[in-house]
Amino acid sequence: MLIAFGETKVLCTATVEERIPPFLKDTGKGWVTAEYGMLPRSSHDRISRDSVKKGRAMEISRLIGRSLRAVVDLAALGERQIMIDCDVIQADGGTRTASISGAYVALHDALTHLTKLGKVPNIPLIGQCAAISVGVIHGAPMLDLCYTEDSTADVDMNLVMRDDGTYIEIQGSAEGASFSRKTMDDLLAMGEKGIRELFALQRSALGLT
Amino acid sequence: MLIAFGETKVLCTATVEERIPPFLKDTGKGWVTAEYGMLPRSSHDRISRDSVKKGRAMEISRLIGRSLRAVVDLAALGERQIMIDCDVIQADGGTRTASISGAYVALHDALTHLTKLGKVPNIPLIGQCAAISVGVIHGAPMLDLCYTEDSTADVDMNLVMRDDGTYIEIQGSAEGASFSRKTMDDLLAMGEKGIRELFALQRSALGLT
Amino acid sequence: MLIAFGETKVLCTATVEERIPPFLKDTGKGWVTAEYGMLPRSSHDRISRDSVKKGRAMEISRLIGRSLRAVVDLAALGERQIMIDCDVIQADGGTRTASISGAYVALHDALTHLTKLGKVPNIPLIGQCAAISVGVIHGAPMLDLCYTEDSTADVDMNLVMRDDGTYIEIQGSAEGASFSRKTMDDLLAMGEKGIRELFALQRSALGLT
Amino acid sequence: MLIAFGETKVLCTATVEERIPPFLKDTGKGWVTAEYGMLPRSSHDRISRDSVKKGRAMEISRLIGRSLRAVVDLAALGERQIMIDCDVIQADGGTRTASISGAYVALHDALTHLTKLGKVPNIPLIGQCAAISVGVIHGAPMLDLCYTEDSTADVDMNLVMRDDGTYIEIQGSAEGASFSRKTMDDLLAMGEKGIRELFALQRSALGLT
Amino acid sequence: MLIAFGETKVLCTATVEERIPPFLKDTGKGWVTAEYGMLPRSSHDRISRDSVKKGRAMEISRLIGRSLRAVVDLAALGERQIMIDCDVIQADGGTRTASISGAYVALHDALTHLTKLGKVPNIPLIGQCAAISVGVIHGAPMLDLCYTEDSTADVDMNLVMRDDGTYIEIQGSAEGASFSRKTMDDLLAMGEKGIRELFALQRSALGLT
Amino acid sequence: MLIAFGETKVLCTATVEERIPPFLKDTGKGWVTAEYGMLPRSSHDRISRDSVKKGRAMEISRLIGRSLRAVVDLAALGERQIMIDCDVIQADGGTRTASISGAYVALHDALTHLTKLGKVPNIPLIGQCAAISVGVIHGAPMLDLCYTEDSTADVDMNLVMRDDGTYIEIQGSAEGASFSRKTMDDLLAMGEKGIRELFALQRSALGLT
């Protein structure tokens, strides 16, 4: 599926693999992992295929995997792995949060298919997850930053939440600055509101409402 | 300098380089960057030199650089770069936060030296920074997790703060779970208390008290 | 632009770069080069990002570049380079020929834009090019093979032609077999007919008819 | 064996390996594969070992393997693999076609040896193959281009044929130009004549005439 | 353990692994291997992590392994491997010889531990080994060169010896020069005297005297 | 030129490059460097191109360069570099010493050519160098070991000498053993005798006698 957040477009797919990482052998549990990539022409300036920022891509890949595992019942999934691919077709800020929100939909599709095949009795999901980026621009809190906003943000926060209102991941970061507790509280409130809207959009995309 | 947090030991050094990254050319500003590595025998099980987790190391390297830049006056530093090396000699949890806290001391030393050489009029620092890891173990908030605790933690949070009480970075993460707002508030309070103690230790190591 | 040939979908983009390869320095001539890639999930079976067939990708990249250079007036282009990116979103046979046919449209767009900016007086094109794959399946010549057909083909031929009826590239290949002159003549005739249809489609996509 | 075409010298060897690629497991069939390399000093200008054109080498390796497989009875070969190494000692154009023609002789030797060892009842060959390069230089068709001719050729064609007059591979390519059907027919006729002479030379090298 | 030779400091550790290299499978014999590395800040000028001299590190790694294997009873060790890690924390000449002398102590410790665990009946050592570097500086033989001396040495010799007075390795090398038999004899005599002192220091570090 | 020592065959070439390594910039001095490689089929068992022992190749490359620099007047050579390529076509022990002895001849040829071109007034050589391997097989000293002997040798010694009887390099090494001073003296005497014969062969190959 293709998820679009403003000008940011990410292709998210899920592949079921009948194998698991070695450390899960004979535990009866499954795994969810992810790989994140950007097409060379996705960015404002063309990114060279060779000089792609591997470290950043791996960091985001691990974040996507961790976020999804928080809502999957790995024991109910059984000894198989869901491989999520998130490939950014067009980037305008917030690619990691768009990837998580889109990956959830792809994951839901794949797990539903697995259920229909009779491989698992019920969809092995224990919650819904979505992510959003919030930040402070020229002193004002803003939702879902686009690239121009993102690169001039004083504070940048990525928030991954479950539909029960708990947090899966909070990454708040200031470049060349720092932020107060008050600012953080404001960003968390604004982010939660945005994520609630995403939950509704995900359910709609999945035909669940 | 060698920083030790319980059984975790990190060698932190700072090198002054009279060159800057291309994007700072002719801006009059300097830069602080970092590289993080682990010796093969630093971990409980020996890490193969080949299979070192490159992505994780780059993620931590970038976190260290970002944290330090938040307390450096880059314009006052001038067109030069401080390269921080953090090499983990022995690992028992919290290596990234130990690296940041130790790197600050190495950075302070290097900038003091630069000042003594007359290359900058005053130490170009606008604050002090330190980092700590906190987490929830079997439901109870804990400070400065060792490896056994870290790997069984429900929630793991890394906190980087300035001495004026503001945040530079918050990374809260749940593996296979999620956490409530109440838990987060408790962790932030506990973390801040621990960081205040680190500030005192840093000042003492620098002979400033 | 996204080109679709049956189930094969390729994203083709062109980027103008104000630099040229070293061997063209001070010749007044420009260059056209290409990079071809496949998304992991584009294929019937997921392709691992690591084990991507680098040799094959580079071979196709060079074919795309060579094909386009045959219709560009490099002297009129001036000392700049057009970088073509072809990324396969979905693959069902014929990805290299679809890439060439789509890349021509992206190239035309980029050169038109350059002309509008006044950087070149006229669109520096000396012809139109398109490509098609033909083959022999169970003894019968077939146009534009899909993946199932491709992998069982006795003979596989890729044809790149100009609109004046001349050939830019002919690659005829038999896997575990060989083919007669008669077969080759039949394939060339069929291929030319198909390419003529592509020329019309390209002109229509460019709004030239 | 060392094959020399004018100033081009290629060392061709064949190694029998009692293992096959995974996709042939339990099919009873064997495989022929090839690796092509150039010594740094083989070329007019020394090639750096690091910057060797990997993509080109892999493209040629695959062409050599494909060409030889067209004349081998893979079922009669049984579950073993022939690995062909073609290393260019001195290059003066036509290294890929010289490699194929030489590799056939090395392959024939290896298969004869296998037959003498009693591992296969008869030499598992169903034909003879050789390759030649032809091209158009300043408007005139030419056989077996040397390097100076090759780099100034308007059209460059590599032809791989069987001794029954059928084609295994045709690669016709124009750099910055295109060619007519008439030119192609002339090149095919000239190439076939040259390949017939190579067949005689191969048989003589193998002591078969 | 940390070994210090003047300003040179090397961290030497030994890890027992219950696996052996493939070529020793079912021979009943064990193996000793080593890996040598330098921290970026160990040298007078910071070494970039990327441009680390891999070839030199592998050459030294193999020398360390070879030296230690000469004093180990591999049959008595049984089918297990001792992996030695030598990481240079601070370098001031003679890092390879310091590594060997220190590695012997780490090896002795690991083998003693293995004996205490009852995995081998006796410490499987058949001798003691140590290494030293000697050289000619401005015409005069010198022991244990520091970096400034090393880089200006006319002749540089590394000597690895056993406690029975036999040689395990002699590497004598002249940069841009050559040396006479007389010089070599002088260097060997001086080196042996220095190594005898190292044997005493090793025994003392191991609490054996 | 192709040098053959028994069954060992090495292709040695020298390339003059009008550039020097950065550390020699503006010193007026030149440099000699070398690269050593093995063809996959040179060894008794085919060596995979991927798993080539890079560390060993780099170690030998550096030995060849160092050996030749000891007989070149780098100041008289001027600011240019001689790049030596040694590629083993067939290996049967002693490839590194054969490479050095052959490389000297290639070097002499290149420097003679440079002199004829008038770029240097005289051949910038201050001596002749050659290398040999000697060893102890079943207790008996032997000259110029072939592969079978080499792999069962108790002691293996590589000797590089100048024609004035001085040593450029001595590498004596015992695998799983050690050797006495008496053995070393015997090996040095035997090696020197062999090298004197090589000096005569080199002069003859260069047409100097």
List keywords for this structure.
homohexamer, 209 residues, alpha+beta, four-stranded mixed sheet, four-stranded antiparallel sheet, 5 helices, 8 strands, 34% helix, globular
Q: How would the blueprint of this fold be written?
A:
Six copies of one chain form a homohexamer.
Chain A (H helix, E strand, L loop, with lengths): L1 E4 L2 E10 L13 E8 L15 H16 L4 H4 L3 E10 L4 H22 L12 E9 L2 E4 L3 H5 L3 E8 L4 E8 L6 H25 L4
Parallel strand pairs in A: 3-4
Antiparallel strand pairs in A: 1-2, 2-4, 5-6, 5-7, 7-8
Helix pairs in contact in A: 1-3, 3-5
Task: Tell me what the structure shows.
- Six copies of one chain form a homohexamer.
- By secondary structure, chain A is α+β, with helices and mostly antiparallel strands.
- In chain A, 34% of the residues lie in helices and 29% in strands.
- Chain A is built from five helices and eight strands; from the N terminus they run E-E-E-H-H-E-H-E-E-H-E-E-H.
- Chain A has helices at 54-69, 74-77, 95-116, 147-151, 181-205; strands at 2-5, 8-17, 31-38, 81-90, 129-137, 140-143, 155-162, 167-174.
- In chain A, the strands form two sheets. Chain A has a four-stranded mixed beta sheet. In chain A, strands 6-5-7-8 form a four-stranded antiparallel beta sheet.
- In chain A, a hairpin with a 2-residue loop joins strand 5 and strand 6.
- In chain A, helix 1 (54-69) crosses helix 3 and helix 3 (95-116) packs parallel to helix 5 (181-205).
- The radius of gyration of chain A is 17 Å and the shape is globular.
- The two termini of chain A are 18 Å apart.
- The mean pLDDT of chain A is 88.
- Chains in contact: A-B, A-C, B-E, C-D, D-F, E-F.
- Strand 8 (167-174) of chain E pairs antiparallel with strand 8 (167-174) of chain F, so a sheet runs across the interface.
